[in-house]
Amino acid sequence: MTAVKDDRLAAGLYRVRVERHGRVEDDWVAVEEPLEIRVDGEPLVVTMRTPGHDRELAAGFLLTEGVVASPGDLESIEPCTDPLAYDPDNLIQVRLTESARASHERVKKARRDFTATAACGLCGKARIEDVFQRIPELEPRHLAIDFLAGLPERMRREQSLFDATGGLHAAALFDLGGELLVLREDIGRHNAVDKVVGNALLAGQLPMSDRILVVSARAGFEIVQKAMMAAIRTLVAVGAASSLAVRAAAEGGLALYSFVGEGRGNRHV
Question: Which fold has domain 145-267?
Fold first, then answer.
């Protein structure tokens, strides 16, 4: 499958023909393709994602899964250059530094047994204890609901791929003044989070204790865990929060807000 790219948009669009109100016409759907991440030549995981910002996705995944802790753990992270690879367009190759390779147990712990789907950032964990990473303890940063309520709409205005397809999640980082710093879209909500976290990791902007993470979907446990692994202290979700997400946020020191929008929002206490 090859994405049909529109000059107005970055990537991730696929042209289809649909019948609508008795007429056949062109439409766009979000691209969903597998991405294989290899670490030091060995397969680590395959995740279903929307192509675009794949280096960020791989970097963010490695951080939120506890494989790396800083940019200094990454020697290189590049698309596949092997023309003999089965699907080089959907393969990212990561090399860890010598010091990071010495902690090989982190890679073994993160390795998954089967493909993670776009709907679930935890699928493939072999043991229950593998679900719970070594998450740093944080000090929650509580902010005024009136201030946070405007952030989802600011994010929504920049979701160009969602405008075209209606089928992608978004994650965005804001500073404490409400300025949008980076936004990424993906068919998987956890992938969108990994992309914005990976953007910060590759730019040397960790920890992100002075950033606000906004997600267009619900706040499930995996989203809360990824935020805390990046030392984000405030998480804002347009949708609901799950029971485990609320518990994890309370125990880890993350300020969690759900159902946030103009004139509304819940702060979990």
Answer: Cytidine Deaminase; domain 2 (3.40.140)
- Is 120 labeled as catalytic in the residue annotation? yes
C-alpha–C-alpha distance, residues 202 and 206, integer Å: 9
Element (DSSP H or E) covering residue 45: strand 42-49
- Split at pLDDT 50, 70, 90, the class of 209 is very high
The CATH number of the domain covering residues in 33-131:
3.10.20.10
Q: In the block, which residue shows the tokens 């860890």?
A: 96
**Is the sign of the CA dihedral 51, 55, 57, 58 positive or negative?**
positive
Q: Quick check: 132 pLDDT over 80?
A: no
Which one from 10, 120, 181, 202 is the annotated catalytic residue?
Answer: 120
Whether residue 196 contacts residue 60, with contact meaning beta carbons closer than 8 Å, is answered with: yes
Q: At what angle do helices 189-202 and 54-64 cross, to 10 degrees?
A: 90
- Quick one: pLDDT at residue 95? 95
Cα–Cα distance measured from residue 43 to residue 40, given in angstroms and rounded to the nearest whole number: 8
Q: Which of 242, 219, 181, 62 is nearest to 234 (CA)?
A: 219
Cα–Cα dist 190/178, whole Å:
22
Number of Cβ within 10 Å of residue 164's Cβ equals: 18
Residue 201 C-beta-side C-alpha neighbours within 13 Å: 32
Domain extents in the chain? 33-131, 145-267
For helices 54-64 and 221-229, give the axis angle rounded to 10 degrees. Answer: 90
The whole-angstrom separation of Cα 210 and Cα 202 is: 17
